[in-house]
Amino acid sequence: MPFTTALPGTPSDPVQVMLVDDSAMVRGIIARILEADPEIKIVASVSNGEQAITSAAKHHPDVVILDIEMPVMDGITALPKILAASLGVKVVMCSTLSMRNAEITLNALELGAAECIAKPSNAEIHGEGDFKSEILRVVKALGRRKRTGPATPTSPSMYSGGQNAVLKTKTPFELRKHIAGESFRPNLLAIGSSTGGPQALFKVIEHFKNFDVPIIITQHMPATFTKTLAQHIEQHTDVPTFEGENGMPVEKGKAYVAAGGHHMTFEKSNGKILIKLNEGPPENFCKPSVDPMLRSAIDIWGPKFLTVILTGMGHDGLEGCKRLAEGGGRVVAQDQESSVVWGMPGAVAVAGLCTAVLPLQDIGPWVRQAFGKQM
């Protein structure tokens, strides 16, 4: 396969991708999937981390698909060096579904990787399963973000609730106006996130120690990875965090992460609220999906709770947030400049559903304050 040195492109150019895996077969499978799309171009294909660093500096790819276990230099060792060799490159970790690799992948996300995907299974190698659609979506979303960056940055925009609430800065979208004098005391915190979500979750949830309401979280991740994510959230934030299991009671002050491969919903039984894993089809190309979680939460807790939508591709959570806002709930979204991908938060912001659209570092303190007073 001939490779050419790639100059920094424009948004209309194909997304430039480098593949890094010691398996020529895996590189071949991924290359065939990506090259079939005219919006993507493979600029390098190498077999270890050392070669990846050299190629990243030469080709300046938009996206790198990076294996974890390789000879000469593994993916974790190579990751920070690839990020340093090509400014702004988006790295996607490609990992097998094991607890060990889940732990390593979460570490990679903390070191600056943008996303993780599961290596194709035998069925997916033969053209079945979701790997093809997932890798195409990830590569295009991250590649375009790297090319264009955020839209024209605006000052942090905030709508502070209460009778005397005012819109502090002009924004390119409407922020939701609430009825003057309406008091609002949230009884639940719900969070939805996807690409770039783990790092964002750590920064937000660290503000929620000793919370007096439950925290429910849907992060788009494969099975196996979500249990490790829950463990990492607890390690980073000191908030007791669990992967949701069937029949697990939902309690104040604790956080619950939707299990990969299941939608997280809820039911009441003997005065308690329990988690119910939903085996329904994917929604918005995702399982777990934010929308089923929000619909079920509204049915159980009522609509007057607060939802935070963090960085992620697509528009998962939009329909649930519409229903929530119509019922008097509140929605907060991460702003474009601080998002890895401004898909999910952008959808709710542009739809005018948000009470606040904030930089990542401001979300936790804002939410903490909201739960400490009537909004």
Walk me through what this model shows.
- It is a single chain.
- This protein is of the alpha/beta class and 375 residues long.
- Helix content is 35%, strand content 19%.
- The protein contains 12 helices and 15 strands.
- The strands form 3 sheets. It has an 8-stranded mixed sheet, sandwiched between helices.
- Helix 7 runs parallel beside helix 8 (225-237) and helix 9 (290-301) runs parallel beside helix 10 (318-326).
- The longest helix is centred in the middle third of the chain and has 18 residues, at 131-148.
- Mean pLDDT is 87; it is low at 1-9 and 151-170.
Key structural traits:
single chain, 375 residues, alpha/beta, eight-stranded mixed sheet, five-stranded parallel sheet, 12 helices, globular
Task: Write the SSE topology.
Blueprint: E1 15-20, H1 24-35, E2 40-46, H2 49-59, E3 63-67, H3 75-85, E4 90-95, H4 99-111, E5 115-118, H5 122-125, H6 131-148, E6 157-158, E7 189-193, H7 197-205, E8 215-219, H8 225-237, E9 241-243, E10 255-257, E11 263-269, E12 272-278, H9 290-301, E13 306-309, H10 318-326, E14 330-334, H11 344-350, E15 356-358, H12 360-372
Parallel strand pairs: 1-2, 1-3, 3-4, 4-5, 7-8, 7-13, 8-10, 9-10, 13-14, 14-15
Antiparallel strand pairs: 6-15, 11-12
Helix pairs in contact: 2-3, 4-8, 7-8, 7-12, 9-10
Q: What is the end-to-end distance?
A: 60 Å
- Low-pLDDT runs: 1-9, 151-170
Largest sheet: 8 strands, mixed
Q: Note the beta-strand portion.
A: 15-25%
Total E-strand runs: 15
Task: Give the mean pLDDT.
Answer: 87
- Strand arrangement, major sheet: 6-15-14-13-7-8-10-9
Q: Evaluate the radius of gyration.
A: 21 Å
Tell me roughly what share of residues is in helical segments.
Answer: 25-40%
Please identify the structural class as seen in this structure: alpha/beta
What's the overall geometry?
Answer: globular
